[in-house]
Amino acid sequence: MSQKLVPRKAVRLLLAGILVLPVAIIVIWGVSSLLVAMGDDIGGAVLRYVGLGCGILWTVDLIFLVLAQGLNSLSDSDEGE
Q: By 3-state DSSP, what share of the chain in percent is helix, strand and coil, each rounded to 5?
């Protein structure tokens, strides 16, 4: 059995980010809309940018997870065949 190129703990962390970040983004954008509706335009704008940053982080996390899974699948290939 060959050793994995990406540690299992790193893949688990990336997978947790893939699952948790969309929920966080929805909650942040919801609170942002609530703040704007209550008249706090500055707070709403700040939370909109925080939500946008989380969305960018989620996209980067998704790309890294795909790359990690690709690297791990390369290490699983049999060299003898």
A: 80, 0, 20
Residue range 36-81, pLDDT digits in tens? 999 999 999 999 999 999 999 999 999 999 999 998 888 876 665 5
Domain containing 33 equals 25-71
Count of domains observed in the chain: 1
pLDDT digits 0-9 by tens, 3-29: 778 889 999 999 999 999 999 999 999
DSSP string, 15-47: HHHHHHHHHHHHHHHHHHHHHHHTT-HHHHHHH
Q: Is there a domain that residue 38 lies in?
A: yes
Instruction: Answer yes or no: is 40 within a domain.
Output: yes
Let me know if residue 62 belongs to a domain: yes
